[in-house]
Specification:
The complex is a heterodimer.
Chain A: E1 2-13, E2 16-28, E3 33-37, H1 44-51, E4 59-64, E5 67-68, H2 74-84, E6 85-88, H3 100-111, H4 115-128, H5 144-156, E7 162-166, H6 174-191, E8 194-198, E9 210-215, E10 218-224
Helix pairs in contact in A: 3-4, 3-5, 4-5, 5-6
Chain B: H1 2-24, H2 28-67, E1 71-74, H3 85-93, E2 98-113, E3 116-125, H4 127-133, E4 140-143, E5 153-157, H5 158-161, E6 181-186, E7 191-200, E8 211-214, H6 215-222, E9 230-235, H7 241-250, E10 256-259, H8 260-304, H9 306-314, H10 319-354, E11 357-359, E12 362-364, H11 370-396, H12 400-405
Parallel strand pairs in B: 3-8, 5-7
Antiparallel strand pairs in B: 1-9, 1-10, 2-3, 2-6, 2-9, 4-7, 5-8, 6-7, 11-12
Helix pairs in contact in B: 1-10, 2-8, 2-10, 2-11, 8-11, 10-11
The chains are: A alpha/beta, B alpha+beta.
Chain lengths: 226, 406
């Protein structure tokens, strides 16, 4: 599903060059729930940004579903993100001017579906993430956990091939964090959703199939949960 | 091709959706302020040119109605007078489309009233002809209009009659009233007293400084039989002057003939030239203000929503959708500003029609034309497209990570 070879990312800060990724290679299979772990500065978020097509690497290759995604134009990448990828960010990245329902059906609207289809699918996903009674609420009327659920619903509404989550529970209390992780687990087990999640919390390991550890921009350990 | 069109339409649909939600949920105070500013810019763009229009229209009306008619017949070069006036009038009046002709005879004269002495021009008119051509009879403010048979009576313009104990810019008789006696010294040395029969006021653009006696009276003093210094021709419709001038030439009239447009081109040219310069400066300044306002509003908005723009791009929303959504917002503020600005202009036009603006040459009401509103509105729309596009394009083309995390 995801095939990464010798991925590098170098940031230039004046005359200093920082190697955020230093030849990362890995394969992630369809239906896997993978956690990327490591200390701050290990390169886990940078890796997610490159694989999620939010940024362009300095070198290496990324194939998703046999598509060489680094060969795509910016416009094609946008369409690829819309149709095949879903994102959940650390901050509650939902749009404040839209209700929960509107936030979720926006990607469907972009695909060109009718408003009725958009609303119906968005409602279905919101129900799935447990926000059936919060659909018409705005960001400011939702708790942190609820906002993150809206973001998850938005990421799932297009039935993406891969769901990327960048420290999705970092700003949540422990109860909300567990709810989100259980939701991910359920999505993975029940619907076979492939999930790649960046985290630094040790207790998250029990929810995932596989943990990949990064340090100084390199994979140092790749272990599967029993 | 069809799929490309559908894609473009869908892009507009999503842009409109985002713009509509943003406008709907934005602070109402900000919306009112923005729309008000654009309304005032529109008023600023239109009001001065509308006053210039009003001024031009007043001068044109005054010229046609009181000073020159539609066509003014004057003596040929080297001649002092037009001869055989009755025959010329008869020939012209026969033409369909001619409302009337009015001969005037001008002579230099000195007017004296109490201690005031004033040099000027005295005109004779045929009052019954003049009624068809000018509006002087409609402007009687005291006394009566002249009749063809009046002898020893004079009609004075308001500015020439003047007012007692009032400092005036133009020389006047300082308060001559109906029934008073005015002494006139003619160019041939004849001195005669005239009773003021009426005082008229039609405009401050020259006519109110004139004095009229009947043609019969002028003949008795100067022996001006069938002669005139000028003949005013009134036509039923404006714009046909050239056509009628050709017809008059065809009738064998060889006098000098000028249309009212030719007579006033110099005056209008210099007045409108000055005002057009002022208008141009005001327009440029207003448009700069408008573009700066829209740029600042959209720029602040995009900076404020930079993270949201990054998120939109990250979840697969096309960059053009984002740009168009800001364009739609800018256009909304602009169209609302044009709408409320037009209403405000309507109110201003009403107020200044009821209370015209006093100019040295008379009172002027602004004339707001559809073309003036259209031109200004189109300028504002273009400005809002530029003002909406630049900042949103700049922000939307930033990398996703920079937009989201700065």
């Amino acid at each position: 599903m995801i095939e990464v070879k010798n991925l590098t990312k170098i940031y230039e800060m004046g005359t200093i060059k920082v190697k955020a990724l230093n030849g990362v290679s890995m394969n992630i299979n369809k239906g896997e729930f993978v956690a990327l772990m490591g200390f701050s500065g290990s390169g886990k978020s940078t890796f997610l940004h490159q694989v999620g097509l939010l940024d362009s690497p300095t070198g290496g290759s990324i194939h998703i579903d046999d598509v060489d995604v680094l060969e795509l134009s910016e416009k094609q990448k946008t369409v690829f993100r819309l149709n095949k990828l879903g994102y959940v960010f650390q901050e509650y990245a939902i749009l404040g001017e839209l209700t929960a329902l509107e936030n979720v059906y926006l990607p469907l609207l972009m695909i060109g579906k009718s408003k009725e289809e958009c609303i119906s699918s968005a409602k279905e996903v919101l129900e799935k993430v447990g926000l059936g009674d919060r659909m018409e609420h705005f960001q400011k009327e939702l708790s942190g956990g609820q906002q993150q659920r809206v973001a998850i619903a938005r990421a799932l509404v297009n039935k993406p091939k891969i769901l990327f989550a960048d420290e999705p529970t970092a700003n949540l209390d422990s109860t909300s964090s567990i709810q989100i992780l259980e939701l991910f687990r359920e999505l993975n087990k029940k619907y076979g959703q492939t999930i790649v999640m960046v985290t630094h919390e040790d207790f998250h390991k029990k929810y995932v199939d596989r943990v990949i550890y990064l340090k100084d921009g390199q994979v140092i350990k790749d272990e599967k949960n029993a | 091709m069809a799929s490309k069109d559908a894609g473009f339409l869908n892009m507009l649909k999503v842009s409109f959706f985002l713009a509509y939600r943003s406008i709907k949920r934005t602070n109402i105070g900000t919306t009112i302020l923005t729309v008000s500013i654009i309304s005032f810019v529109l008023v600023n763009l239109i009001f001065l040119p509308s006053v210039v229009n009003g001024l031009q229209e007043s001068i044109e009306e005054e010229s046609r109605d009181n000073l020159y008619g539609n066509i003014l017949i004057e003596p040929k070069e080297d001649n002092f007078y037009i001869n055989d006036v009755a025959n010329i009038q008869k020939n012209i009046n026969r033409l369909s489309g001619v409302v009337g002709t009015a001969p005037r005879y001008a002579t230099g004269a000195t007017f004296s009233y109490e201690d005031e002495f004033l040099g000027g021009t005295l005109y004779s008119i045929v009052p019954s002809d003049e009624v068809l051509v000018s509006k002087i009879h409609e402007g009687i403010i005291s006394g009566e209009y002249l009749s063809d048979s009046d002898m020893g009576e004079i009609l004075l313009g308001r500015d020439l009659a003047g007012e007692k104990d009032v400092e005036e810019e133009q020389p006047s008789l300082k308060g001559a009233e109906v029934g008073d006696s005015i002494t006139i010294t003619f160019s041939n040395g004849v001195i005669k007293d005239y009773r003021v029969k009426g005082i008229f006021g039609v405009s401050k653009m020259g006519t109110d400084s004139l004095a009229f006696i009947s043609e019969k009276e002028m003949e008795s003093v100067l022996g001006t039989d069938n002669k005139a210094s000028l003949i005013l021709v009134k036509l039923s419709s404006v714009g046909t002057e050239e056509e009628f001038r050709e017809k008059f030439i065809g009738l064998g009239i060889s006098e000098d003939m000028k249309t009212w447009q030719e007579k006033i081109s110099g005056v209008i040219g210099s007045i409108t030239g000055t005002f057009n310069l002022l208008t141009m400066i005001t327009t440029v300044v207003s448009l700069i203000i408008a573009i700066v306002i829209i740029l600042v509003i959209v720029y602040i908005n995009t900076i404020h929503n930079q993270r949201q723009i990054g998120i939109l791009k990250a979840i697969g929303i096309d960059q053009n959708v984002i740009i168009f959504s800001y364009l739609f917002q800018a256009l909304f503020y602009c169209v609302a500003g044009i709408f409320f600005g037009s209403l405000l202009l309507g109110v201003l036009a009403y107020v200044f029609t009821q209370n015209p603006i006093a100019f040295p040459m008379g009172e002027v009401s602004p004339i707001i034309t559809v073309s003036l509103i259209a031109k200004s509105s189109i300028s504002l729309l273009i400005i809002s497209i530029i003002g909406g596009f630049l900042p949103s394009w700049q922000t939307a083309r930033q990398s996703i990570l920079k937009s989201i995390w700065g």
